[in-house]
């Protein structure tokens, strides 16, 4: 991870964008996200892994946030973690239900 000196930080703001589904492994999808972020002045500093990237922009760009088509301070992209949890739970309930049904049929 990039280390910063105090003079490197002056006049800049930073954010980390996360993806629960490893969207940054796909270069095309990552570039589409970076293109959206660039509308608010953000540029990529580094890619940590397939789930996290760090961006920076000039602090002067804050004054233009009202004109941006995206939330300039979003920190998550792609499928939300909550949706993934719900899908896993639904799948688990389905599997357990199927096992219970098969056990009931086998017991007869």
Detailed description of the structure:
With 108 residues, the protein is α+β, with helices and mostly antiparallel strands. The chain has two domains: 68 residues; 30 residues. The chain is 40% helix and 22% strand. It contains three helices and four strands, in the order H-E-H-E-E-E-H. A four-stranded mixed sheet has the order 2-3-1-4, covered by helices on one side. Strand 2 and strand 3 form a beta hairpin. It is elongated. The mean pLDDT is 88.
Biggest sheet statistics = 4 strands, mixed
The whole-angstrom Rg is: 21 Å
The total beta strand count reads 4
Shape: elongated
Mean pLDDT level = 88
Number of self-contained structural domains? 2
Top keywords for this entry?
108 residues, 3 helices, alpha+beta, 22% strand
Layout: helices, strands, pairs:
Blueprint: H1 6-9, E1 12-19, H2 27-38, E2 43-49, E3 52-58, E4 76-77, H3 81-107
Parallel strand pairs: 1-4
Antiparallel strand pairs: 1-3, 2-3
Q: In a nutshell, what does this entry contain?
A:
40% of the residues lie in helices and 22% in strands.
